[in-house]
Amino acid sequence: MRKFPGKKRIELFAFLILVLLFAVVLVVDILSGKTAVPEVSESPSTSPAKPSPAAEPKITIGYYTSWSASSAFTPDDITADKLDFVHYAFASVGTDYKVAAGQSELDYVNFEQLRALKKANPTLKTLISVGGWGGSEGFSEMASSDETRKIFAQSCIDFVRLYGFDGVDIDWEYPVSGGCAGKPKDKENFTLLMQALHEALDTLGTAEGKHYYLSFAGGASNDYIGHVELQKLAALVDYAVIMTYDLHGIWDSYADLNAPLYTPGEASPQYKTSVDDAVKAWKEAGFPPDKTVMGLAFYGYIYTGVSENNHGLYQPFSSGEAIGFDAVQALLSDGSYSVFRHSEAQVPYVFSNGSFISFDDTASITEKTQYALQNGLKGVSAWELGTDRFAILLSAAYTALHSGSS
């Protein structure tokens, strides 16, 4: 083995001592904070990206009425691939404070067909809607005590389990006043009723390992808003449907627009309101947009005995009735009606030979659905599926909702 001469061995030893001393000084400086340790940053191409929160899915709801089956539109005719929820209308409140089938001769057959529809469309959910304009007379008394509220809530649990529903939709028309007779305490009692349902459905869901839905349908007027506790109700429900239709109708003195998206600016001989007004009023009252579902009218009103002034709009009339979208399409097919579109209200109307019809078409439904998206609402809800049997309006709403939210 090669040996170093003595002088060079001393120089090497001295060099190693210097290196060692330098290392000791460096370590001391680092520990004392005098020397910064450079951070090692990952390349942007290799750094993991933070996952963005998933957008809350928008929903499409359709009300299916029991009486639709009487006119050969049964639950298996529903275009289920365009819907997230079907609300079955209506059950009622019995004299024993329990939920009861509204039209038993039709309901039980319909319930079985809804089960089959869900089996063929596994993501579809169904809710039993209780009340409606003609079925709300039992709410005020039932909601007036803790005992009767619990009886009703338990009966709803039994009902959804027996008939395969995924939740409950309360259509009390209306607490305090408007529709069936009410009383001032309805305002607080409605909240307590929804609290009892919320607790009962949560208990059932925990036991079965699934989520049961709770919703309600509410009026579009400021009068309705003043008779309920929207902010408190929001904490109890999955969503609520604003009935943004019947803003005008045959109970008025003049032919008018059923569901204008925006309030017309011109003079009118009667009150003016709009879908936009209702949505803003609910928000101002404390109901969050992301739980708000905007109602869409799949029907309109036909007024007869109307003068030709202003193509019938805002004119007195002699009689009138509701008319479904399918029936409007049939009337328009002969070409005798002149079709107009209100540039501000964003809805169509037609006039011919003393008849004025206010309704919604695919363009207005698309416009309204886009409005729901732009305002951060949870989705849209159709009243009702039986008046749009070929899903023309439903398809327009579905397309607008999902093309706009994708």
Number of strands: 14
Quickly count the helices.
11
In the CATH hierarchy, the architecture is Alpha-Beta Barrel
Give the low-confidence spans: 1-19, 21-28, 30-53
Helix content: 25-40%
**What global shape is seen?**
globular
Give the biggest sheet: 8 strands, parallel, barrel
Fold and architecture overview:
With 406 residues, the chain is of the alpha/beta class. The chain has a single domain (59-298, 360-405), classed as Alpha-Beta Barrel (TIM Barrel), CATH 3.20.20. It is built from eleven helices and 14 strands. It has helices at 6-32, 104-120, 139-142, 146-163, 186-208, 222-226, 230-234, 275-284, 325-332, 362-374, 392-405; strands at residues 59-65, 85-93, 99-101, 125-131, 167-171, 213-218, 239-242, 292-297, 299-304, 319-324, 338-342, 347-352, 355-358, 379-383. Strands 1-2-4-5-6-7-8-14 form an eight-stranded parallel beta barrel, surrounded by five helices. A hairpin with a 4-residue loop joins strand 11 and strand 12. Helix 4 (146-163) packs across helix 5 and helix 10 (362-374) runs parallel beside helix 11. The relative contact order is 0.11.
How would you sum up this structure in a few lines?
With about 400 residues, the chain is an alpha/beta fold. Helices cover about 35% and strands about 20% of the residues. It has one domain (about 60-300, about 360-405): Glycosidases (TIM Barrel).
